[in-house]
């Protein structure tokens, strides 16, 4: 008998559907035939999250999207495919299946292979946002730099060669800061680390790949969210009306 196919819900917290389609392809390639992937795009919010206000709005959109999907399908895991992980803590309170975030998964990977890591990601506001995130999770001391990648996120998502050039430049800056490993973070640049690995001597961690590896691990371990309290779904249901 073959293995039972597992089901992943991938939620893009940005509203750009073409980006969701790209993330869906990357996830299907990474996970292979053992997984079915259902990918959803946030129904309201920013085309690409670049600041705190947009991340706050996206948290509502992500929760509503997960809630609507979970009413129709049983999932083994959910991936919030957005480096800011909007709504992740609330999602873990509501849903029993593992909810994985790109930043958390990639940082956990980085500290397993390196003493000091750096993050390169798109957007001028992200360094301060990620610094707050790392401090809140007691991981800031292991990070030696957060380097913004030049350019606009959706432009880079649509121009692979330009993205590779700007990412490579940011990686070199990260290495100058003393990084033993570099996280390439964000939905817009997902899947590009593999094309740059031969050019650098230190580990490059793709935030999407790291989170998909966590999806596989947690589903295989059959763990669930111990903080899950499904009662908020009654409140969540009212927020999805008309979406």
Helix and strand run = EHEHEHEHEHEHHEEHH
Which word captures the global form? globular
Query: In what order do the strands lie side by side in the largest sheet?
Result: 2-1-3-4
- Might you state the CATH topology name of the largest domain? Rossmann fold
Biggest sheet architecture: 4 strands, parallel
pLDDT averaged over residues: 90
Question: Regions with pLDDT < 50 over 5+ consecutive residues?
Answer: none
Task: Compute the number of strand runs.
Answer: 8
CATH architecture of the largest domain: 3-Layer(aba) Sandwich
Which CATH class of the largest domain applies here? Alpha Beta
Radius of gyration: 17 Å
Helix-strand category: alpha/beta
* SS summary, helix count: 9
Overall structural domain count: 2
Strand content: 15-25%
Ends apart, CA distance between termini: 41 Å
What is the helix fraction of residues, given as a range? Answer: 40-55%
């Amino acid at each position: 008998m073959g293995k039972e196919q597992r089901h992943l819900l991938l939620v893009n917290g940005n509203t750009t559907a073409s980006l969701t389609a790209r993330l869906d392809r990357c996830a299907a390639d990474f996970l292979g035939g053992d997984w079915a992937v259902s990918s959803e795009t946030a129904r309201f919010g920013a085309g690409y999250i670049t600041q705190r206000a947009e991340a706050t709005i996206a948290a509502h959109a992500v929760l509503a999207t997960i809630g609507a999907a979970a009413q129709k399908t049983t999932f083994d895991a959910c991936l919030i495919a957005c480096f800011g992980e909007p709504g992740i803590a609330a999602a873990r309170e509501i849903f029993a299946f593992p909810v994985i975030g790109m930043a958390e998964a990639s940082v956990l990977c980085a500290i397993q292979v390196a003493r000091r890591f750096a993050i390169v990601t798109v957007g001028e506001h992200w360094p301060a946002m990620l610094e707050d995130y790392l401090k809140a999770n007691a991981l800031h001391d292991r990070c030696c730099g957060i380097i913004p990648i030049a350019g606009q996120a959706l432009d880079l998502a649509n121009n692979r060669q330009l993205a590779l050039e700007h990412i490579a430049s940011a990686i070199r800056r990260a290495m100058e800061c003393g990084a033993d490993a570099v996280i390439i973070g964000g939905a817009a640049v997902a899947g590009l680390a593999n094309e740059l690995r031969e050019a650098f001597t230190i580990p490059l961690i793709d935030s999407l790949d790291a989170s998909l590896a966590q999806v596989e691990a947690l589903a295989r371990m059959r763990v669930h969210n111990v903080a899950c309290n499904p009662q908020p779904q009654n409140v969540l249901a009212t927020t999805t009306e008309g979406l």
